[in-house]
Design goal:
The complex is a heterotrimer of chains A (225), B (210) and C (50). Chain A is mostly helical and 225 residues long. Helix content of chain A is 88%, strand content 0%. In chain A, helix 3 runs antiparallel to helix 8. The longest helix of chain A is centred in the first third of the chain and has 33 residues. Chain C has 1 helix and no strands. Classes of the chains: A mainly alpha (225), B mainly alpha (210), C mainly alpha (50).
Amino acid sequence: MSFLRRVYIIAWKDVLLDLHTRENVTTLVFFSALILLVFNFALGPDRELLAQVSAGVIWLAFLLAGMLALGRSFLLERENECLEGLLLIPVDRSAIYLGKLGGNLLFMLVAEAILLPLFAVFFNLDLWAALPRLIPVAVLGTLGFAGLGTLFSAMAVHVRAREVMLPLLLLPVAVPVILATIRSTEVILRAGPWAEVAPWLQLMAGFDVIFLTVGVLVFDFILEQ
Amino acid sequence: MLLAVGLYVGLVLAPPDAVQGDVQRIMYLHLPFVLIAYLAFAIVFLAGIAYLWKRDEWADVLAHSAAEIGVVFTGLVLVTGSIWGKPTWGVWWTWDARLTTTLLLFFIFVGYLMVRALTEERGRGARYAAIVGIIGALDIPIIHMSVVWWRTLHQPSTFLRAQGPAIAPALMIPLFVNFGAFLVLFLFLLVRRMRLEQARREAEALEALT
Amino acid sequence: MGPWGYIAAAYGIAAVVLLGYHLVMSVRLRAFARRLSALRATAAWMRRAA
């Protein structure tokens, strides 16, 4: 079996598990929707204000919910002693990292795909016009966030106060991706010029490349017993 | 010990010149603190790599000590910067690129110390902390770049650049003197902190024995 | 608050924090030195007994 195939199998295991339990995608979707609802109480019904902050609110809802899913990702493996099983696979540890990352990325992207039309209705967004430009932003942004999140999630299961530990580590480090997704989405939603989006995309691509490489390199040290 | 403290107080009181108003004097604290904070985190980064690679206990002691002192200095950077900002900008805090980056640096390395403190076994904590340190140090330039873009692309020219034109030589000399003094203080604290950490580890090992 | 007020605040806080940090560390160092010598003695005694 090739390396890629093993990565795929580890990711597929998580997807299958979720197809049976429906824990991740369902909770992600409902939690994001609830965050949105609560944000609306804070912001009030002012249309213009909502249009200005919609990009930020949408992404914060996605990412905060995503963080919960990321936190559960390795907790499940530990609770059921599955991590030992994963470690027995005769493959480089980075395959486990990439596999888990693939699963998490998929959950977050599916949840985003389900929620985006809903949010478009809530915020009166013209989704069709924005969609082709929104997809690369969403993919690159979610990849960067999930990439570091998977890494820290694997760490957090061995740390006391693990529920707080993941956001504490992830949020400050993920600031470039959070900023980039929110700002570029905001430009796209007001149909701004592509030249304003492109630098953010480059920044996210660079971020993703750097931290996925770091993740692959250091994941071995995290799983070490 | 008294010698280093005495040296530091003497040097702080020494530069009596103030060209751009007296408040500028805070710079003599602020700038050396920033540089030392960055130095401390560079040490954390390099020692983290060295620890993961060679598994040398000493590298981990160094990284831990540098991180803790770095957090103290970063906290002082934020406080002195804030106090400097009030009379010069009129506000305690502005979401300017440099300030935001420094605040995030502070959070990242507080996270670093927490991972270390809250991990169940020490070896694991050391590895995790090293990873957080490496990621944090790599992230700082990216964070800075993103925050600069955020301020310039989104709201151009809403704030004045923090530093004015090039610093006059009359200010440079006390600045260098202060930087040297704080560097000595930093190294002094670092050595003592490392000695403390080594004592702590030896005590732990001996306690496990007895 | 004049400029000297701000300067005093900045220098004061810096001095208090750094001196405080140094002081706490000194106290802990001394405490550990005492504990270590006791522990070393116990360990040596145990080795002799064994």
